[in-house]
Write a structure and sequence with these properties.
six-stranded antiparallel sheet, four-stranded antiparallel sheet, 7 helices
Length: 359
Amino acid sequence: MDSDDTITEEVCREDDVGDGQLLEVMVAGYPVLLVRNRKEFSALGSKCPHYGAPMSKGVLRGERLRCPWHGACFNIRTGDIEEYPALDCISCFKVTVEDGKVFITAKKKDLESSVRVKDTSRRCLLNKNTMLLLGGGVAALVCAETLRQEGFTGRIILATNEKHIPYDKSKLSKEMNLKPEDVYLRKPEFLKAEGIEFWTEKEAVSVDFQRQRVRFMDGSSQKYQQLLIATGSHSGFLKVPGAELQNVCTLQTPEESSKILKLATGKNLLIVGASFVGMEVAAFLSDKAGTITVVEREEFPFQHALGPQVGGVAMKMLQNKGVKFHMKTELCELKGKDGKVSHAFVIPELLILGEKSPN
């Protein structure tokens, strides 16, 4: 069967699907989500394009289907993305009902990959408008793509002080052995095809709003007609004596993720903070580091975000893997030897963590 071949299959009886129900069915051996809303049927790709969550477990409200994992929303009539964090749409298939039987019609290539990118406009050199986006994260990337999707044909420039095109920072703590290109949100070829210029290691230092010009650290400048500042946030830095020691790391970039993995393997690891990032790092390194100790001010991990019950369960899971927790505790000082951390002091117990050199 050719990938462009069109397939029509009966998937169920009309009475098998109640109003508001999400039912996963098979078409030519591929899973498809069948949705019934106000007696009308829709058929969509079965997985969220963000992290592959099963959309049959999602929540339907009106014509919006929300992903069960991270909350991305899709229009059930078109499959279009309406709320992030997903970047792509999901495929939408034709549904017909004959004599009480429900049929789905689809091309094989659309069944093979339920991810769909919205149609976009092309760069037109006659359009002299320049949209300058400062920041290389998701916000700037989505803005650039949305402009093309909504018909903007002018020049689009993304400028960032980072070394890479936009990448998925949430993966840096989940899988610390990935290469930078493994976490890219879009490939360089995609940005080029969309007419989106991307400037790396280009740090903005000032904006002249009257003259509509941005100056950069390297001495260059860029004129713009529209400007978006989406530089995002950064990891907090330790403000304790000893924070400048060589093996004290923050997690912000792919290079830092790889560095932490290398330093922690077979060594004593101290993690300051039981946030999502800290807990994910502890989980990933639990079978790689010599020992892992987590220091946290609150009584439970995720206490403000998810509450003590969920936090307590997550803490117990990591404790079962050998991770040690010092809760309601605060790091007050790091002591070093030969420029590297050797001991960490916390309050209120003034506990010395580790006799061997922690990383």
